[in-house]
TrEMBL record:
Keywords: Membrane, Transmembrane, Transmembrane helix. The lineage of its organism: Bacteria, Bacillati, Bacillota, Bacilli, Bacillales. Residues 488-632 form the HD domain. The chain crosses the membrane at residues 20-41, 263-284, 296-317, 369-390, 402-421, 433-455. PANTHER family: CYCLIC-DI-AMP PHOSPHODIESTERASE PGPH (PTHR36442:SF1). This is HDIG domain-containing protein.
Amino acid sequence: MGKSQRDSFLQGQWKTNFSIQMLIYAIFGVAFYLLLLPHALPQFVDIKVGKVSRETIISPITKIDETATKLAQDRAVESVDPQYTKNEELTNSQIEKIDLVFADARRIIADKTLTEPEKIKSLKDAITKELPEEFYYKLVRTPENELTDLRLTTRDIVSDLLEEGIRTQELASKKDQVDRMLVISSLSSNSRYLAREMARYFLIANELYDQKKTDSLKEAAKDSVDSIPIKKGQVLVSSGEVVTDDQYRKLTEMGIIREQTNFLPYVGLLLFVALILAIFRFYVQRFHSFVHADNSQLLLLISILLLTLIGMKIVTLGQNLEWSTVGFLAPVALGTMLITLLLNSKLSISASLILCVASSMFFKGDNQFLFDFRFGLIALISGIISTFALDDVKRRSAVLKAGVLTSSISMIVILALYTLTPTESDITQLFQSLLFGFIGGIFSAVLTIGFLPYFETLFGILSPLRLLELSNPNHPLLQDLLYKAPGTYHHSIIVGNLAEAAAESIGADGFLARVGAYYHDVGKLKRPQFFIENQIHRDNPHDKISPNLSKTIILSHPRDGVEMLKVHRIPKAIQDIAAQHHGTTLLKFFYYRALEQSNGTKVIEEDYRYPGPKAQFKEAAIVGIADCVEAAVRSISKPSPSRIENMIGKIIRDRLEDGQFHECDLTFKECNTIAKAMAATLQGIFHSRIEYPDDIPKGGK
């Protein structure tokens, strides 16, 4: 859960408005982009083709030479021959057509009812009209016994040639091959002519161009080509060397040449920031819904990140003073500490990743690489350590202790880094780095203590530290309650214990519930004698006044309490608990007394209900239940576990039926859990004791 928040300058629909949420993310994205931009642009050189280079230029990174790689791939693709696939269906279809044609020809030629011209016409219709006229005159006069040999010869020639596969561009040569195949035929010259014409006619291209197969082989050939890299540290141009077109191309592709039209670094950083922003938004939406659903909490998170980034940016100015490791001084832990205290530790860990990326870019100095992992590593470790150190903070001094711990761990990591990179182990620089690392954590802690109250006030956040201060019995309001309304004070303490146990049992903020309970009845300080817990050895003043006046006094104590809390600058969440703990419940005692004394006068029930509002959050509802339960159980003469449980159950049922929990999303299951937690706590308070007799019998020990 996030830290308690009930009031900020983003209220109502603005707290959940999607457009506002997108605007907050957009502002952060633009600011993040602008802060990183000067550190993301590459270092340029002034060089031209045909000119002598005045310096040796080395590749700062390993990058694929896209142009050279593409040329190699194109050569591989061009070496792939077009691919063809033989269509067996076409082959079989042509053979079947030959058989059908000869069957028709045999039938027509044998038909004695037809004249020769009629037979020729029928043959043209059965075969085709594309063959020469001579073909049909010879075919119609072919003896029946030669038709079988003619069919088989034609069939074999077509079948053999189609079986070999014929491409479109080969069709003419294959038809010429028919003549050579008929030379060895035993057919008569007449039948040989017919076989030639028939075979040439039935030969078709049955081996078709296979686009898919060709493309697949070309793609495989392209993939088989290894990428040609420009390796990190590779000399691109040597000093004194005349720059060639290819060298200039490589320098351009590496982004080393300054060109007015080169917007790639800007676009690259834009994509990088957009990706980080998208991942961060998805993470917040998926794992921190309380922030995603509340624009004020989202704005708090983004404000802390921007404050930290600006602080880091200011520190980068120190690198202009020959302090190359000044990045170890950056107040990265400021962001993680504030997020841990004001939101939660899990969110702080994820935020440290963003700060890690920023730190590694901010402090890369003259390094030609985009990131310097040393500063990113220190930032990440500082963020994680400070988060763990403050995860369960109990007092304000813990922030300084967390800063010292962060500084100590940072120094150990810095020492380890210098040990692992002996070539960079300049002793002066090492001591300088250790000093910066030591100051960095403590500096972050001091800034955290300084900025924390402003964030608490501006966003209405109740951090654990603020709650600790409010729970101090020496607080002026609690002191007034103790001396002016001692019964109410002790009642509030017990209510606090009940509320804390109940809230923690359902995952709500137990600390907030307890502190809220301490202050929920401070309004009774205005007229303490009118509340029964403060009437020890005193007459009840309500016996002497009308029910209408009594209810006016009783019903006003939540409002009076809110006014007093405002005067003492108590956070809004505590004010809300004081205002909402009774909700709009009915003041039954005085309502029924008014009915008894009405003498026929109409008594309006609504006038005897608390003004509300109903509980808007679970902790307020729990304090209201605990308040009623403590008073009710105190009235039981002999409290037993079953009586206590029954009393708690009845109180919760009455409030449920009265609709008091409709606006705080308290479920039936949570109500049962709350009842069990309160029963267990009360049984510990009102446990049975041995009742000792007044006189000890004789002989007793």
